[in-house]
Design brief:
Chain lengths: 82, 224, 304
């Protein structure tokens, strides 16, 4: 089995893409879960503001998801560009 | 085991490319649509102050989902988008439940169905956003907080289509593969009825609801 | 097995610690608490028992015709079950511990608490069962003449995908079950709604491990053309790694959301509908990174 330079680079890029998305998904997943838990708490305490709280939760989650999206972008770049 | 991932396709040439139609999915979608039309007809026929059971079921769905839409949008929004939301939920519910009947398969098992529904929701949400805010305010949101975040904001929006459709696809496909593999391992002895109840009824209902709720939420985020 | 034991040990330790705390608070009914602790620990241990079964099978399996491919499959099976048992082991500890605390507070509802604990921790075990299914398939499937070069990576990847993804879902399901036991102890009259919310929350928190299973099955049952390049093998391995690690965070996060939802359903039961809805939306959004990870895996398998 002849392993050449280009092959190693390709292999490393694939492995890197998997690691990037895999590890990058951990943080946002936990973080957004915390946001959702706190939103449930807030609605439990103050149900009248449910609409506002839902929107706030979604905005907060969207922001904390951005690192997950960066990982996705990096993974796709590694897959298709490198 | 050979059944895994096998699909019947109708392939025909179209303007120099080849277009493929997944026959089974189309037929299953027709069955769902037919079932929905029958359900709608039965529940709306002979409406009465003293409703018959099927009318109660119909009213329950419509009332609950209108309530949900009203919470997320408002009264006016509920009147505009309510019918869409009710239709979407019922379609997904019937689709996810269809696999319980032998020889029938969930149309949502094919990625194309959730993907097109996701695209539909995305297009409607953004159309609603442009209509309620005006194009300028809509477009300027992409340049927040700073202008060079624009590509990432666009990817973030597009990722929503991916996440909403792959969630439904992954759950339904995963469920049916688990049922297939486990019934193969246990020679169809014990588990399948229980698994069908869990993945078909329970997970199917939850995922149909989640998909519908997320569509409402995407619309409401764009509108407000 | 080693890894599986870690999780089960943490879970059982948590249960025992909570039981001691509970006994010190209310020593009159220590017998009830002790009984409950044992039941809770037995359930938490079942994850490590699965791991033990797989480990013993691995040790004594009579492999006909030793090949590198079979070795890769057995390695994958070991990883899969080992990682897969961690989450469920820790997770099942939470409901056990909360039940012990709950019995000391409200001895009258101990039977209802035990039922709730058993339902909750049984659902927690689902990811460990998924891992066991994958491990058994890896061990007993006949890979026949499949080419060694990319297939070994597919087999190890299949093990990693389900095994790692099961950690998050098992742990998350445990958080939800723990909160529900706490809730039942506080407000026994809300048991029905609390259990329903818990089951819905756990079912959604299971999604990352279902994604892991989906990717594993694709890796297991798809036949890959022989290739001598390293890249083809690494793509399949990376597919497993991506979905596997990607499932951990969202699984835990979904569990936290479910925990919050269940806790507040028990405190404010009139708003159960609204809470369930926001819990589902929150969970759905926090799942999206697991979905991106699955998409990357599918691209790695089918496109690259």
């Amino acid at each position: 089995m002849a392993i050449e330079g280009a092959d190693i680079i390709k292999a490393a890029a694939f492995l890197g893409a998997g690691l990037s998305m895999g590890l990058g998904a951990i943080g946002p997943g936990v973080g957004e879960g915390m946001v959702a838990a706190k939103a449930c708490e807030a609605i439990g305490k103050n149900p009248n503001e449910a609409g506002l709280l839902t929107r706030t939760m979604l905005v907060g989650q969207a922001v904390s998801e951005s690192t997950g999206i960066y990982s996705l972008v990096i993974a796709l770049l590694l897959l298709f560009v490198v | 085991m050979g059944e895994l991932g096998r699909i019947h396709q109708l392939v025909f040439p179209l303007f120099g490319h080849t277009a493929a139609i997944n026959l089974e999915v189309v037929v299953m979608t027709w069955i769902v649509m037919a079932a929905l039309i029958v359900f709608g007809y039965l529940s709306a026929r002979k409406r009465d102050i003293l409703p018959r059971p099927i009318q109660v079921v119909g009213e329950l769905f419509v009332g609950q989902l209108y309530g949900l839409t009203e919470d997320a949008l408002d009264k006016e929004g509920a009147r505009t988008y309510g019918p869409l939301i009710v239709a979407l939920f019922l379609f997904l519910l019937f689709s996810n439940w269809l696999g319980i009947i032998p020889h029938l398969e969930e149309p949502t098992k094919d990625l194309n169905t959730p993907l097109s529904l996701g695209l539909m929701g995305f297009a409607i949400a953004h159309y609603a956003g442009i209509r309620s805010k005006g194009f300028k305010a809509y477009a300027s949101e992409y340049f927040a907080p700073i202008f060079f975040m624009m590509p990432l904001n666009v990817i973030g929006e597009l990722a929503k289509i991916v996440s909403i459709s792959f969630r439904l696809f992954g759950n339904i496909m995963g469920g049916s593969i688990i049922i297939l593999v486990v019934s193969y391992l246990t020679y169809n002895l014990v588990l399948p009825p229980f698994l069908y109840a869990f993945f078909g009824l329970f997970v199917g209902t939850i995922q149909a609801f989640v998909f519908t709720m997320l569509t409402v939420v995407y619309i409401s985020v764009q509108v407000k | 097995m080693g890894l599986g034991a870690v999780g089960a040990a943490i879970g059982e330790g948590y249960t025992a610690a909570q039981a001691n705390l509970a006994v010190s608070r209310n020593s009159d009914i220590s017998g009830d608490i002790f009984k409950n602790m044992l039941v809770g620990q037995a359930v938490a241990e079942s994850a490590s028992i699965f791991a033990l079964v797989i480990a013993i099978l691995l040790l004594f399996l009579d492999v006909p015709g030793v090949s590198y491919l079979k070795a890769a499959a057995l390695f994958g099976a070991g990883i899969c079950m080992g990682f897969g048992a961690i989450g469920s082991g820790i997770g099942s500890g939470f409901p056990g511990g909360q039940t012990c605390t709950g019995i000391s507070r409200q001895p009258a509802v101990s039977s209802r608490l035990t039922t709730n604990m058993l339902i909750g921790s049984a659902v927690c075990q689902t990811p460990a069962i998924f891992s066991m299914v994958v491990a058994l398939i890896l061990m007993f499937m006949d890979f026949g003449q499949a080419p060694l070069q990319p297939t070994w990576a597919a087999l190890v990847g299949a093990g990693l995908s389900t095994g790692l993804a099961a950690i998050g879902s098992g742990y998350g399901g445990g958080l939800a079950a723990g909160a529900s036991c706490e809730g039942v102890a506080r407000q026994p009259e809300t048991t029905g709604q609390v259990t329903t919310t818990m089951l819905v929350g756990q079912a959604v928190a299971q999604t990352p491990s279902i994604f892991g299973l989906l990717v594993s099955f694709i890796l297991l049952f798809r036949s890959f053309p022989e290739s001598s390049s390293l890249a083809a093998a690494m793509a399949l391995l990376a597919a497993g790694i991506s979905t596997g690690f990607g499932g951990i965070g969202p699984g835990i996060g979904n569990g936290m959301a479910a925990e919050g939802g269940v806790r507040w359903v028990s405190r404010n039961v009139e708003k159960a509908g609204e809470l369930m809805r926001i819990m589902l939306v929150g969970q759905a959004v926090s799942q999206s990174t697991a979905i991106y990870a699955m998409v990357v895996s599918l691209v790695l398998i089918f496109v690259v």
